[in-house]
Write a structure and sequence with these properties.
The structure holds two protein chains of two kinds. By secondary structure, chain A is mostly beta strands. Chain A has no helices and eleven strands. By secondary structure, chain B is mainly beta. At the A-B interface, strand 5 and strand 10 of A face strand 5 and strand 10 of B.
Chain lengths: 117, 107
């Protein structure tokens, strides 16, 4: 069974940093592209970042480019999202998702990031 | 960026009804279109990919169609567990973009 479990969310002050993790199981993690998607509670879904299966290529949405960095450790079956210079508008639930091609076929349960002073 | 427009934004239906949700892309996306179901407090769940292919384990009451810019998701014989919010998403181009969602509510 494919499982994706996010962790690392919490309360952070504006301008602060946070690193989210996503631990994968039930599939060959190193064979799949992975993505991060976020959702402000009560609002829609927004794609943030993608990383290729070996970590050699990444892409980020303009809204987070230069502040967020996606990475992975295939030996640990873990995906990361390093978030710096956090803003009020980054408050959201963050989901890691598996990509089969660019189709997002499995999602984690999400982790909540709150930005407040 | 490709804009995805869903309609309606909400609809009311009864158990046993068949409902159709539409999704329009701002440019041709071939069939690089997926549909997701999301229940309150839960992660989105993949229903349909490549516009009309059913995700493994998803019941055949869900069906998708379309290509180019216009797409539909049809849910037949609505059951209580089908009342949720549905999103379309294009994966023809980056950034990946989602529609605004359609909330299917019990009448």
């Amino acid at each position: 069974e494919v499982q994706l479990v996010e962790s690392g969310g919490g309360l952070v002050q504006p301008g602060g940093s946070l690193r989210l993790s996503c631990t994968a199981s039930g599939f060959s993690f190193s064979s799949y592209w992975m993505h991060w998607v976020r959702q402000v509670p009560g609002k829609g879904l927004v794609w943030l970042s993608r990383i290729d299966s070996d970590g050699s290529r990444t892409m980020h949405a303009d809204s987070v480019k230069g502040r967020f960095t996606i990475s992975r450790d295939n030996a640990k079956n873990t995906l990361y999202l390093q978030m710096n210079s956090l803003r009020d508008e980054d408050r959201a639930v963050y989901y890691c998702t598996r990509g089969t091609g660019d189709h997002l076929d499995y999602w984690g349960q999400g982790t909540l990031v709150a930005v407040s002073s | 960026d490709i804009q995805m427009t869903q309609s309606p934004s909400s609809l009311s239906a009864s158990v046993g009804d068949t409902v159709t949700i539409t999704c329009r892309a701002s440019q041709d996306i071939n069939t690089y279109l997926a549909w997701f179901q999301q229940k309150p407090g839960k992660a989105p769940k993949s229903l349909i990919y490549a516009a009309s292919s059913l995700q493994s384990g998803v019941p055949s009451k869900f069906s998708g169609s379309g290509s180019g810019t216009d797409f539909t998701l049809t849910i037949s014989s609505l059951q209580p567990e089908d009342f949720a919010t549905y999103y379309c998403q294009q994966y023809d181009n980056y950034p990946l973009t989602f529609g605004g969602g359609t909330k299917v509510e019990l009448k």
